[in-house]
Amino acid sequence: MKFLAITAFCDKGDRYRRRNLTATLANNISLFPEAMFCVAEQNPTGWFDTLQMDPEKVRHVTLTIEGGFRKTALLNAAIEAVPDAEVIVMVDGDVFLNEKVVNYIRNHGQDGSLVFPYSEAMYLKETDTRLLVGGKPL
Q: What distance in Å separates the CA atoms of residue 7 and residue 78, rounded to the nearest whole number?
């Protein structure tokens, strides 16, 4: 199966948002190496290009859109950029996948329905986020 993991992103110059996106991409690519990742960015600032991601692994599509955050338009742009994807996974820029979630996606991606592999959500304080981003267990 051809997996596409999409993250809709709007930079806004926020260093925490940038840090979280960078860390989650690294984590998620390492856990889900067979997937293509696409960051669909609204109103790009040029910051993402400084990361020098491998274009064979991470696509970057951009849209300039006035007004508020337009997640659906960004998701559609990412799908158009990788038209041969068979399974689309939407991953927010601050979501760290784990092996259980990735295996669930692998095992149920062909089901042909919406798959929500998350069974829990954790809201982290900044100190906990720093630990997770730094590769330390919580």
A: 9
